[in-house]
Amino acid sequence: MDEEYDAIVLGTGLKECILSGMLSVSGKKVLHIDRNKYYGGESASITPLEELFEKFNAPPPDETYGRGRDWNVDLIPKFLMANGLLVKLLIHTGVTRYLEFKSVEGSYVYKGGKISKVPVDQKEALASDLMGLFEKRRFRNFLIYVQDFDEQDARTYKGFDPTTDKMSKIYNNFGLDKNTQDFTGHALALYLDDSYLEQPAIQTINRIKLYSDSLARYGKSPYLYPMYGLGELPQGFARLSAIYGGTYMLDKPIDEIVLGEDGKVVGVRSGNEIAKCKQVYCDPSYVPDRVRRKGKVIRCICLLDHPIANTKDALSTQIIIPQKQVGRNSDIYVSLVSYTHQVAPKGWFIAMVSTTVETEDPESEIKPGLELLGPIRQKFVSVTDYFEPIDDGSQSQIFISESYDATTHFETTCLDVLKIYKRGTDEDFDFSKVKVELGEEEQ
Amino acid sequence: MATNRSGASQRPNGAPQTKVCQFKLVLLGESAVGKSSLVLRFVKGQFHEYQESTIGAAFLTQTVCLDDTTVKFEIWDTAGQERYHSLAPMYYRGAQAAIVVYDITNQDTFGRAKNWVKELQRQASPSIVIALAGNKSDLAAKRMVEFDEAQAYADENGLLFMETSAKTAMNVNDIFLAIANKLPKSEGAGGGSAAGARRLADGEQPRSSACCK
């Protein structure tokens, strides 16, 4: 450990592992440390099952749960958008070679107490029970507009200026009613709340395009999920970092981030050892005095021995409960994965209900989500603060990631990573630095 | 080289094409025992006296031809993550074969090899085929680990065993060939992917199971 590094990365959550990989690929000498003896931090998948029960102070699972080692339970629920940033990062860095994925089978939206499939193309829109006949036609026209929209080609703007016109104006011009706006903004554009309505429409249009481009890639739904759980993702990027020379130490307590006289970081101390460095990259848990609370998220892990009703017995699915449907300001998300992803023994399902906390009684906030699940064999609730850094790190050269938010996918995760990389290195990540011939498969 | 990439060629009496089976093979062992050198010798036929610590290889592939089967190895190197005991579970995941390497001139590395075997028995699939390689056999003059001692240990634990030299190429192809022979090659054997799982790459097909025609 007593060496000098360009960068020391603390914590092996997904964001830190992607950063570590990018820094190593760019030729930086990286030391990557975690205080835990396992990879993944908050983005780990917990295994065996006994460990999960212990983590939540529950009595050990009985034999009906099968072999504990067959379980890999995520702590934070997220899916990958098939055409999203994380998939691009995986493919460009070659990390995809360590992983396998399955498409999520269906995407549903909650309306008036029941769930309906999210309509994504013109055909589905016409068949959907979410809208009346005339509304369907209006929605279809809106979808055609979005599909034909090309940011580079002003002719496709068709009388609007999406860079300045608000999204609410576009909705009104297509005559979409509040219900349709609701599932469009929340189930297709995947906004957490309604503030997007007053923002330039271009963001929303691009989000809907991301949704439909993702859907076009593999069918069924726009989402992908990795075999063996989300915890495989940080491990894959950690391996990338190691392959490019990064040094890994797990189970290593961090006692101090050492600053020089000018307030810049000079090293990291563990016991009597100090590793010198020019920069530190870390998650908020390593620098409690350099972050502030941004909000709270509630996440409830539910173990089920059956699929969710009205989803055609899908082995994986997402259900979005738009805020307005249940009188809230932020959406409730339900995600479901199962034995088909090797995260549970045969016959078992793992559901997660989550949302941004708005009241003093977060558990009752997620009730509408829990009620969709049917009988729950075991429930684990966690309410966690999420943090953001108090500065951009340019003074201290300590670059801190934000905690994982309540969004259901990795887009904000990747944007944070790319921003941090740029702050730390003053340049955008150059994907061409990944040497293509290395470890290339001859097929 | 004993390996052969054109295994699926003509065969007498009109027999069908050979079967191609793909297996994940992982390397384990202390730093500097020659894990990467063994792979480099096997895959590229090269040897570098001053091989740097592993940088750059995600995994390499090489095929071995048996009578009626072509065995394709996907070979994973530790990328140095063994140094501070920080190998990720992903490394062992789905591995159907492992080579545990020690240096015959260094008794400590043999002790550590035994620990790696235990780790594999704990973490990896129960049906994994493990080979023990006593590397640097060209340095027999400085030998610290006796052949018989290692052979006895291997026999007790059901491991394949050979002394190898990445430098002279002695037994390098042979140990991979021995593993290929021992791996189950029946239809659907081995780990491989679950049905419907895919790798992400432009235009890539869902990955086939470990054994297919």
TrEMBL record, chain A:
It is found in: Cytoplasm. Gene3D superfamilies: FAD/NAD(P)-binding domain, Guanine Nucleotide Dissociation Inhibitor, domain 1, Guanine Nucleotide Dissociation Inhibitor, domain 2. One of its GO terms (cellular component) is cytoplasm. GO terms for molecular function: GTPase activator activity; Rab GDP-dissociation inhibitor activity. Its main location: cytoplasm. Keywords: Cytoplasm, GTPase activation. It comes from the Eukaryota. GO terms for biological process: protein transport; small GTPase-mediated signal transduction; vesicle-mediated transport. It holds the Pfam family GDI. Regulates the GDP/GTP exchange reaction of most RAB proteins by inhibiting the dissociation of GDP from them, and the subsequent binding of GTP. Belongs to the Rab GDI family. This is Rab GDP dissociation inhibitor. It comes from Papilio xuthus.
TrEMBL record, chain B:
Pfam families: Ras. PROSITE patterns: RAB, RAS, RHO. It comes from the Eukaryota. It is found in: Early endosome. Signal peptide: none annotated. It is an enzyme of class 3 (hydrolase). SMART domains: RAB, RAN, RAS, RHO. Its main location: other. GO terms for biological process: protein transport. PANTHER family: PTHR47978. NCBIfam families: small_GTP. This is small monomeric GTPase.
